[in-house]
Amino acid sequence: MKNIAVIGTGYVGLVTGTCFAETGNNVICVDIDKEKVERLKNGEVPIYEPHLDVLFERNIKQKRLQFTTDLASAIKDAEIIFLALPTPPGEDGSADLSYVLGVAKDLGKLITEYKVIIDKSTVPVGTADKVTAAIKAETDVPFAVVSNPEFLREGYAVDDFMNPDRVIIGTEDEKAKIVMKELYQPFIRDGHPLIFMDEKSAELTKYAANAFLATKITFMNEVANFCEIVGADVDKVREGMGSDTRIGHRFLYPGIGFGGSCFPKDVSALMKSGLDNNFDFSIIDAVLNVNKKQRIKLLDKILDYFGDIKGKKFALWGLSFKPDTDDIREAPALYLIDELINRGAEVVAFDPEGMDNVKKLLGDKISYVENQYDALDGADALLIATEWSVFKNPDFNLIKSKLNSPVIFDGRNIFNLSDIQEKGVYYSSIGRQTILPKV
Ligand SMILES: NC(=O)c1ccc[n+]([C@@H]2O[C@H](COP(=O)([O-])OP(=O)(O)OC[C@H]3O[C@@H](n4cnc5c(N)ncnc54)[C@H](O)[C@@H]3O)[C@@H](O)[C@H]2O)c1
Ligand SMILES: O=c1ccn([C@@H]2O[C@H](COP(=O)(O)OP(=O)(O)O[C@H]3O[C@H](CO)[C@@H](O)[C@H](O)[C@H]3O)[C@@H](O)[C@H]2O)c(=O)[nH]1
């Protein structure tokens, strides 16, 4: 059992804190957002993350999980302090380190005995040195700084955290290595190692992994775009490529680009780290440019079909950047909405979890409905931006009866081409033949 403080109780901090409590530790989570802490104290999970609630409730009940806004009291008895703070993109694409370094400075003022301070935020190579310097400027008390990047995916966060492919520990402090090994022991299985390395390599591993995955998706998006031009079927190409075990089937799904709170910001930040070191990360530059165009890929198809879209009404299914999350950060749907409303079109949207967040951002620029079929009333086409399960087996007769004409633009390829042929709709997707309604 260890006493742990987690500073920053967002997607990563709350999952980290809850999962460490689940493995028998005493955890206190800190946040500056008073309203969020109040909700947490009242037993409410403030984000939508499948399977988190069960662990959250159990560990609160057993008093292993607590919440506070008071940093000083939280870290007093904690041997281990996690930083799970935001590292949002600055205007030049660099990661904004003000949250991390601000808390490092506060910790320097507060610590009175040896602490292991662990950076779980995604931070550019060299940040552990900056954190160390910020703390050292305030205190002579010994401490270790560890880089322990997090690889969880939203929507699968609990499973990813409890059963990680690997855990990366970047530190050269021998005492900290022992603490980290004990802490992560419950999560380690055969073939899923705890990998020790220096801080810089750990920091770069995180960016390299995200940039590689973003590149894999982007490569497939370009292949899909080319498929459309030459009349190939990206589903077949994907299956054929993915069956090569060196390539693998995962992260080969083409669509309207990658979004979310991580890939866009982390790929930009790696690009900026390169520039800061006079290194031209040209492959990453290409990934960012292709993704920028890909996220509005449906617009080209819509304009090809309708010409002018002024006054047209579009039903939009899916707002979150991917299914099983309410997170709308950098969601491709938002870029599409922007393009549509700038051209005078009307958008009526439905998303199972993301609508409240979009309402806060866009207000009445678009309309919202509580049932996916209500979005279709009098709409000129249905657009699909997120592959939520509830969209995958819809009532096509109802869709056709509500739309002005049976037209679907699918940015996530959720229907089989062979199945959709029987449905009597115009169906345009990514990297595949356009299906025309049978006459
Ligand atoms: N979201 C993911 O899927 C994911 C996965 C892996 C890594 N990461 C990285 O983890 C970090 C955190 O991401 P997130 O998605 O959890 O962010 P988030 O915005 O959901 O949460 C950050 C939290 O920190 C709080 N905070 C800000 N300043 C604070 C301070 N001074 N003291 C205490 N709390 C403070 C905020 O109020 C917020 O609740 C980022 O670097 C991100 O890149 C995120
Ligand atoms: O084949 C695919 C796979 C994903 N995506 C898109 O890629 C984006 C990111 O998806 P995913 O990786 O599942 O979501 P995140 O929760 O953003 O997780 C990524 O970002 C996290 C934050 O750094 C990391 O911890 C995870 O390992 C990494 O997968 C989403 O817009 C998806 O729609 C595709 O277009 N095609």
Automatic annotation (TrEMBL):
Sorted UniProt keywords: NAD, Oxidoreductase
Highest rank taxon of the organism: Bacteria
Enzyme class (EC, first level): oxidoreductase
The UDP-glucose/GDP-mannose dehydrogenase C-terminal domain, residue ranges: 315-417
Pathway(s) of this molecule: Nucleotide-sugar biosynthesis; UDP-alpha-D-glucuronate biosynthesis; UDP-alpha-D-glucuronate from UDP-alpha-D-glucose: step 1/1
Binding site for substrate: 151-154, 206, 251-255, 259, 322
Recorded coiled-coil stretches: none
GO term, biological process aspect, one: polysaccharide biosynthetic process
One annotated GO molecular function: UDP-glucose 6-dehydrogenase activity
InterPro entries to which the protein is assigned, alphabetical: 6-PGluconate_DH-like_C_sf, NAD(P)-bd_dom_sf, UDP-Glc/GDP-Man, UDP-Glc/GDP-Man_DH_C, UDP-Glc/GDP-Man_DH_C_sf, UDP-Glc/GDP-Man_DH_dimer, UDP-Glc/GDP-Man_DH_N, UDPglc_DH_bac
Active site annotation, chain numbering: 262
Known catalytic reactions: UDP-alpha-D-glucose + 2 NAD(+) + H2O = UDP-alpha-D-glucuronate + 2 NADH + 3 H(+)
EC number, UniProt record: 1.1.1.22
Positions annotated to bind NAD(+): 31, 36, 87, 122, 154, 265, 329
Family: Belongs to the UDP-glucose/GDP-mannose dehydrogenase family.
Alphabetized NCBIfam families for the sequence: NDP-sugDHase (TIGR03026)
PANTHER family: UDP-GLUCOSE 6-DEHYDROGENASE TUAD
The name this protein goes by in its record: UDP-glucose 6-dehydrogenase
Organism per entry: Brumimicrobium glaciale
